[in-house]
Amino acid sequence: MSNQCHNPFKWRRFQADIILLCVRWYLRYSLSYRDLEEMMLERALHVDHTTIYRWVQQYAPELERRCRPHLKTTTDSWRVDETYVKVKKQWVYLYRAVDPLGNTLDFLLSPTRDGEAASRFLLKTLVASHTAEPRVLNVDKNAAYPKAFNELKAGGRLPESCELRQVKYLNNIIEQDHRFIKRLTKPGMGFFSFETAWRTLQGFEAMNMIRKGQAQGVKKGDVRGQMALVVRLFGVVA
């Protein structure tokens, strides 16, 4: 970015490309911060693991924000489910939704698993710029979903024609997608705060969407294209 006032890397000791490399690798692969510290040493770069942690905390949510306008539109069939993430040795709930092709619609971290949390998640997904108005919501047998669905429909937030289906096997695709996110959280052995977890998960989800080919002009499996997109989103010359 030409305007230094909008340069997200201003005053950083390390070059922007090194910062983005560490952030991108942490968010894409099952690595710990100490793994990345050692990997940077191989490049003769002395970067403390706590520094990499601070980079992820700052730039992971920013990556998610910047990639949103570039996402392809998803389909009108939603697969909605929640999985578990450990924060301060307590389980919290990561609400997630994908379409039948496995494309991520949206996600939300919540300390509770109830109707209110389900409503908040569905509302967040409804206003996402890349999601189509739902024709059908596929959920499991969690009683919170019908409650949230009925309230949103009564309030005119969901289309009158939208259906709710509680058929567990239809959600196999999102359960597979959960595994990818869970695998990324394992090296860190849980999070120390809810805010830390949320900021990191925003980055995990953003890189997962890019990896799946959801960004315009970047195909699934195009690793160099995915790398170039992240660099471009931050206005860095590769």
What does this structure look like?
With 238 residues, this protein is of the alpha/beta class. It has 2 domains: 4-70 and 191-233, no CATH class; 77-180, Nucleotidyltransferase, domain 5. The protein is 45% helix and 15% strand. It has 8 helices and 5 strands, in the order αααβββαβαβααα. It has helices at residues 16-28, 33-42, 49-67, 115-126, 144-154, 172-185, 194-211, 223-233; strands at 77-87, 90-98, 104-110, 136-139, 163-166. The chain has a 5-stranded mixed beta sheet, sandwiched between helices. A hairpin with a 5-residue loop joins β2 and β3 (104-110). α1 packs across α3. It is globular, with a radius of gyration of 19 Å. The two termini are 13 Å apart. Mean pLDDT is 93; it is low at 1-5. Pfam families: DDE_Tnp_IS240. Residues 65-228 form the Integrase catalytic domain. Keywords: DNA recombination, DNA-binding, Transposition.
Short description:
This protein is an alpha/beta fold and 238 residues long. The protein contains 8 helices and 5 strands.
Task: Pick out its properties.
alpha/beta; Nucleotidyltransferase, domain 5; 2 domains; 5-stranded mixed sheet; 8 helices; 45% helix; 15% strand; globular; disordered N terminus; IS_Transposase; IS6 family transposase; Transpos_IS6; Integrase_cat-core
